[in-house]
Amino acid sequence: MVNSLIVVPLISSLVTAAVISGIWVGAYYIGVKPNQKSDSSNSDPTNQGSASTASYPVSASTASHPVLTTPCIQRSPCEYRLVESIPWGIFTNGEKVMNSTSSAWLDLVNGAESSIEIASFYWSLLAEDTGDNFTSNDTSTFEGRDFYNALINAGKKGISIKIAQNTAVGGYPETANLEKNGWAQVRSLNFTNFEGSGILHTKTMVVDRKHFYVGSANYDWRSLTQVKELGAAVFNCPCLADDVGKILDVYWQMGVPNAQIPDKWPDSVATVYGSQNPLSVRLNQENDVVYFSASPPDFRAGARTGDIDAILNVINTATQFVHIEVMDYAPTTLYMQRNYYWPLIDDALRNAAFQRQIHVRLLMGRWVHTYTEFYSYLYSLQNLNVSLPCLPRGSKDCKRGTIEVRLFEVPPYKEIPNIPYARVNHAKFMVTDNTAYIGTSNWSGDYFISTGGIGMIIQAGDSSQTSQVVQELNDVFIRDWNSNYSTPITDYDLKGNPINSNNL
Ligand SMILES: *[C@@H]1O[C@H](CO)[C@@H](O)[C@H](O)[C@H]1NC(C)=O
Ligand SMILES: *[C@@H]1O[C@H](CO)[C@@H](O)[C@H](O)[C@H]1NC(C)=O
Ligand SMILES: *[C@@H]1O[C@H](CO)[C@@H](O)[C@H](O)[C@H]1NC(C)=O
Ligand SMILES: *[C@@H]1O[C@H](CO)[C@@H](O)[C@H](O)[C@H]1NC(C)=O
Ligand SMILES: *[C@@H]1O[C@H](CO)[C@@H](O)[C@H](O)[C@H]1NC(C)=O
Ligand SMILES: *[C@@H]1O[C@H](CO)[C@@H](O)[C@H](O)[C@H]1NC(C)=O
Ligand SMILES: *[C@@H]1O[C@H](CO)[C@@H](O)[C@H](O)[C@H]1NC(C)=O
């Protein structure tokens, strides 16, 4: 890998970084007022001052960390694939679907030459580990098994496999088996010890520090065939892979017994890339700028942008539309000892539609486990649509924003009607007229305050150009939004019960 990285002295590197990101940073400030004061993802529930102000902070966290590492020059184009898992039985009428998560994962693992590094929540690639006494020989269980076997084969070949996972009483049989046989090293992270709550929720794989996956899919057979997932797989891209690798290094370090958040992360895991200084790379045919965001705030090293700051940045820099597809959405925390109101994203969306005439569309997943209170949150958001102003006032050319909310519901799978915790839209992404954001977190406060997550943010390097990567993600959104699995929020009452329109 060293061959492909050009190491340059610090001073010239700063100049290079400024030049290569110049166009982008210039465009970035249009319509955005950077706010120096805040770390918006303040994890102290008693200190909500900055969280409830009407401004939308851009990450200022980089200020206290000098840029110490050198930028990476990615000379050859990276192969970028938008990948998704489509629950079996839907989108069978010729709709365009992207390459599958499982084919990308197999390509990653089968192509590994020296190392595979994984960050994961839980493990159930085999049907027998599904839980709830579930067993099945259905062919939809095979892709998970095949991926697990590919990992075993890589381990047997002597490829170094490191797995960071969320802690669980008794562990997970699959990673325990990999470890017992010497095929993988496994570390478990207990976020209660670091953050008082939270989990490791990231789903990422880095191979040879050259190739990687970032997205919503868990290491679970259902995430390959029975749950709707979205992610990015990138090949031959050491600069980006190494930057994701630094996030994995942080997890690895936090996985040793009695680990504590250090006062300062070592430079070796600190990134130079963030919202203010993204990395220039060629993804397939186009020049893009890319950075990775991370949560919780304690797990960021160097210039790493917080995941919530990245999301707010993307919303605040949209000029036409904001399209969001997320499994769960709540302007609150959900898992704190004392939950509190957390309106950062909600405010940014309302502000975008009201103040900047942006067209906001939010498509949330709906399944049997959807919390009842989410419906009123969604209604509240969409209700503003009625009273969005047309600006400038009185002008016949005035422009009005919109806010529209729909729910995406995956119908049951005929062969196995009762797969536990499946048949849901688990994708977590956002696309605007100029930016793609691919994430791993649900959109409630907890995920940005105390839970491990990661986001990948992609824009055209020249902000006057339309990015194919952004366009392709928007095609996915529009497909889902217009599909017959998607229904307006008003098809449900405030408690989430379906309203039979014939009875109205
Ligand atoms: C799937 O990946 C292959 C290989 O990278 C690529 O040629 C093809 O265009 C991709 N298909 C879609 C629908 O993105
Ligand atoms: C699983 O099976 C065991 C033994 O039959 C039973 O006691 C238990 O309640 C079952 N669990 C679930 C979640 O169905
Ligand atoms: C799966 O197949 C095996 C072998 O044919 C059989 O013993 C087992 O009962 C099957 N399990 C299910 C859940 O169908
Ligand atoms: C995680 O840490 C907390 C606090 O120390 C402890 O109560 C809990 O049992 C731990 N969880 C696991 C799965 O070890
Ligand atoms: C939102 O408001 C616009 C008018 O600005 C209207 O055309 C549209 O139907 C509304 N959408 C919903 C979902 O109410
Ligand atoms: C968020 O996503 C995870 C899976 O990644 C899911 O299990 C969980 O129930 C989701 N919802 C909430 C409200 O946390
Ligand atoms: C969507 O439409 C297709 C046919 O166009 C139909 O087979 C399918 O059942 C529909 N799904 C839903 C959820 O209505």
UniProtKB/TrEMBL annotation:
It comes from the Eukaryota. InterPro entries: Diverse_PLD-related, PLDc_3, PLipase_D/transphosphatidylase. It holds the Pfam family PLDc_3. The chain crosses the membrane at residues 6-30. SUPFAM superfamilies: Phospholipase D/nuclease (SSF56024). Residues 36-57 are annotated as: Disordered. Residues 196-223, 421-447 form the PLD phosphodiesterase domain. One of its GO terms (molecular function) is catalytic activity. CDD domains: PLDc_vPLD3_4_5_like_1, PLDc_vPLD3_4_5_like_2. Keywords: Membrane, Transmembrane, Transmembrane helix. PROSITE patterns: PLD. SMART domains: PLDc (SM00155). Belongs to the phospholipase D family. This is PLD phosphodiesterase domain-containing protein.
